[in-house]
């Protein structure tokens, strides 16, 4: 349903796009899209993976050239298309999800390096670079040691460095692509405060996020795309997360608690007194067959380190692990896989999948022994295995031989899950399985999780977002500073009670 909304509102737009069309290989990525941003506005660009958001941003920033007939108006000047140089000169900047920074270089060099770009070589004045960096950070109300290498700073502060670099480029419009995907709640709150600071100083911000609570908290208007077309432009006042989800997907999603009695199910995993100094201490819990155990906590709480210890990649100093009633000690993740433990990494892009490799190769890489005969891979067995899991998990693909990078984030995550299900595990550990995945794809992933649990698979669900574990887990452990701080049963407590404990 398209709701007409003007970008005028009595104020002349900073950016106005009309008749934007883009086709890739016969597929219409954008269809007659219009888009507008007001000066100093915080505007959200929303849509499922594959809706056309990134394509639209790349057209605005000159990476892609739209089809003839497009009109791009910026500060009253009209273009049929922009080049990257034109866009940057006009004051349009993008902070991509990967930040595109240089870890080995100092903070000052990262912030000020664009001031040195040009046709001719020149001497580097490091004092000037430092002054430039300090001034840019001061505009954000932030103080950092600009002489330290960027790699020594956590992701939240690297985000700030990327924003400061945009300000050095005299930014008038900044696109932020999933800026909070890897941040804790407190870090997210700080970043949103910086966005407010930018807006108050007259810099317009286009915010792209799958976290709908942030969308409602930070933006004044919302543009929704679906399948490359404009759904509508809406004020966020009075808007709800469920309404945004419905606009993005055309579907409604019911969030109901999982109320099941699994107390009679045998224990699959029994962890007692597990300790790895400096990361977690005295961790004890059980997971039953068919149970989904949620683990929540702020970044640095020790959740991933605990998961890696269960998966044999980190060795605990003390404590015991029993799987299916038998004590286990793993020397490597190979031992853990052999025992029936599967681990879906929180970093899908670099650890979970091999982006240049095919969909089929990614899916079978953890279960090669199942498709090998006399030391040789069986192409027929491989095709059958891949076809089975693609069908079972409802993955949308073109060809099995296509690179995994051609799939949307949600479908990539389904392949990552299928890769481990193909090993026939007893315990599946899901570490932040919805990072960078849109709302519709998230619902699909949790449908899969529910079906796997109902089939008897024991699951550990680690998440940064309390609602994910509240609505999808039978029990919830709250980790803080390497210890289990609280234990919750969702059907016996409120969502607010868990959020209050985690974010206190």
TrEMBL record:
Print the organism lineage: Bacteria, Pseudomonadati, Pseudomonadota, Alphaproteobacteria, Hyphomicrobiales
Q: Which GO molecular function, any one, fits this protein according to its record?
A: ATP binding
Q: Which InterPro entries match?
A: AAA+_ATPase, ABC_carbohydrate_import_ATPase, ABC_transporter-like_ATP-bd, ABC_transporter-like_CS, P-loop_NTPase
Query: What keywords does the record list, in alphabetical order?
Result: ATP-binding, Cell membrane, Membrane, Nucleotide-binding, Repeat, Sugar transport, Translocase, Transport
Q: What is this protein called?
A: Lipase
Family named by the database record: Belongs to the ABC transporter superfamily.
Stretches assigned to the ABC transporter domain: 15-252, 257-504
Tell me yes or no: is Disulfide bond among this UniProt entry's keywords.
no
Please give the organism. Answer: Rhizobium tubonense
């Amino acid at each position: 349903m398209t709701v007409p909304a003007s970008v005028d509102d009595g104020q002349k737009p900073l950016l106005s796009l009309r008749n934007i069309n883009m086709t890739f290989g016969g597929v219409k990525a954008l269809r007659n899209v219009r888009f507008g941003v007001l000066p100093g506005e915080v505007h959200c660009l929303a849509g499922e993976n594959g809706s056309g958001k990134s394509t639209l941003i790349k057209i605005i920033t000159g990476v892609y050239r739209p089809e003839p007939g497009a009109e791009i108006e910026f500060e009253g000047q009209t273009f049929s298309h922009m080049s990257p140089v034109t866009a940057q000169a006009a004051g349009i900047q993008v902070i991509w999800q990967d930040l595109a920074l240089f870890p080995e270089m100092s903070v000052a060099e990262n912030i000020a390096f664009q001031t040195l770009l040009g046709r001719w070589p020149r001497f580097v004045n490091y004092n000037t670079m430092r002054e430039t960096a300090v001034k840019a950070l001061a505009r954000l109300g932030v103080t950092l040691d600009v002489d330290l290498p960027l790699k020594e700073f956590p992701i939240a502060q690297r985000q700030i460095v990327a924003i400061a670099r945009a300000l050095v480029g005299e930014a008038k419009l900044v696109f932020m692509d999933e800026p909070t995907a890897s941040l804790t709640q407190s870090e997210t709150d700080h970043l949103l405060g910086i966005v407010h600071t930018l807006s108050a100083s007259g810099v317009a911000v286009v915010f792209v996020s799958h976290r709908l609570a942030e969308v409602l908290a930070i933006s004044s208007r919302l543009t929704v795309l679906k399948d490359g077309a404009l759904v509508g432009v809406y004020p966020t006042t009075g808007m709800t997360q469920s309404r945004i989800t419905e606009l993005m997907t055309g579907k409604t999603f019911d969030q109901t608690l999982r109320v099941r009695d699994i107390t009679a199910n045998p224990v699959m995993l029994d962890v007692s007194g597990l300790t790895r100094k400096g990361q977690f201490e005295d961790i004890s819990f059980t997971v039953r067959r068919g149970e989904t155990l949620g683990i929540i906590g702020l970044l640095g709480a020790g959740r991933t380190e605990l998961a890696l210890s269960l998966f044999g990649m980190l060795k605990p100093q003390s404590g015991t692990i029993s799987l299916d009633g038998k004590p286990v000690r793993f020397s490597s993740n190979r031992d853990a896989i052999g025992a029936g433990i599967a681990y879906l990494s929180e970093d899908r892009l670099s650890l979970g999948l091999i982006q240049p490799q095919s969909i089929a190769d990614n899916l079978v890489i953890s279960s090669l022994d199942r498709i090998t005969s006399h030391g040789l891979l069986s192409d027929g067995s491989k095709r059958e295995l891949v076809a089975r899991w693609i069908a079972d998990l409802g993955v949308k693909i073109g060809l099995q031989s296509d690179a995994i990078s051609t799939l949307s984030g949600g479908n990539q995550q389904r392949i990552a899950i299928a890769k481990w299900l193909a090993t026939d595990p007893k315990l599946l550990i899901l570490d932040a399985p919805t990072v960078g995945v849109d709302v519709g794809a998230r619902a699909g992933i949790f449908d899969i999780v529910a079906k796997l649990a109902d089939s008897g698979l024991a699951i550990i669900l680690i998440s940064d977002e309390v609602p994910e574990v509240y609505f999808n887990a039978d029990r919830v452990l709250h980790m803080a500073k390497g210890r289990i701080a609280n234990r919750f049963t969702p059907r016996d407590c409120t969502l607010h009670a868990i959020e209050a404990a985690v974010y206190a």
